[in-house]
Amino acid sequence: MVYEGVFLNQAVTVKRLVPELAKDEYSRDVFMYEAKVAAQLDHPKIVRFVGVYWTTVSDIGSVFERMSGGELNEYLAAHYSELVWTRPARPSMEERPASASDVELPTKLQLAIDVAEALVLLHSFHPPIAHGNLSSKSVWLDGSGTAKLWNFRPVGVEALAHSMMDTSRSGTVTGTRTMDNGDICAFGQLLVELDWCEPAQSHLRPVETPADALVMSELIEPEFTSSCPPVVTQLARRCLVFSPYDRPTAIEIFYELRKLADSER
C-alpha cells in the first residue's frame, strides 16, 4: 500500500505493510528487512530512503522521498507520442527562440541509462545485490524526469528475514551471479517496454527450439520499433538470452548506453 504524506514539512511517499500481513510476524520481518536494505543505499538514481514509522506492532511503514513524476509505466503511457530514444543537441540559449521551453521530456535513452546506473551500484557490491523486482512499476521519476529505482525485493530475503542477519559485515543483502542476472533479463524487457511505451509482454514472442532443448528454456525474441537504435536492440537481445552467464553485466550495459548517448551529442 503506497500513500503520499508529509514528514518534517517534506513531501514523502509512504509504503505501508498491508494490515492483514502486518499481523504476521514473518511478514513484518520481511518488510523490515527490505527497509534495512533500502537504508543502506545512497545514490542519485535510487529513491532516497527517509525512515521507518510504526504506531503499533501491526501498523508499520517505510518512508521515501516523494517522486512527483510517478511510475515509469504510467509516464510511458501518458507521453508515448512525445518520447524519443535520442534527440539532436539543443541550441544554445542565444540561438533558441524566446518561446522555446527550457523543460523537455527525458529521452528513452536517458531513462534507460538512469536505471542501468542504479543497477551498476547494486551489482558492484561483493557479493552483488539483486534488486529482484525490476520493472517499469519499480522505476519512478522525479520532477526533473530523472528515473530512480525503488520497491526492492532482494532475492532470498524471505529466507533471511527471520534471522535479520547483521549486514554490516558484507555491506548489504547479497545475491549470486545467477540472482543478479535476473535483473539483467528484467532490464532487457524494460528496454522493450521503453521502445514501445507499453508492456513488453506484447512484443516478446517464443522462439521455436529443437525437441531436445532444455525443458525450462522458454526462449524469447523481442520485437522493436523501426526507430529503436541498433545498439539498444542488440543490447536487449543479449539481456534476454537464456543463460544468465551469457548476458552482459550492469557495467557493460551502462557503458554501451552511455557511449550511444555521447555519440548523439
From TrEMBL:
Q: Which InterPro entries match?
A: Kinase-like_dom_sf, Prot_kinase_dom, Ser-Thr/Tyr_kinase_cat_dom, Ser/Thr_Kinases-Pseudokinases, Tyr_kinase_cat_dom
GO molecular function ontology, one term from the record: ATP binding
Per UniProt, residues of the Protein kinase domain are 1-260
SUPFAM superfamilies annotated for this entry? Protein kinase-like (PK-like)
Which sequence ranges form a coiled-coil region, renumbered to this chain?
none
Recorded hits in PROSITE patterns, A to Z, give: PROTEIN_KINASE_DOM
By its UniProt entry, which Pfam families does this protein fall under? PK_Tyr_Ser-Thr (PF07714)
Could you tell me what this protein is called? Protein kinase domain-containing protein
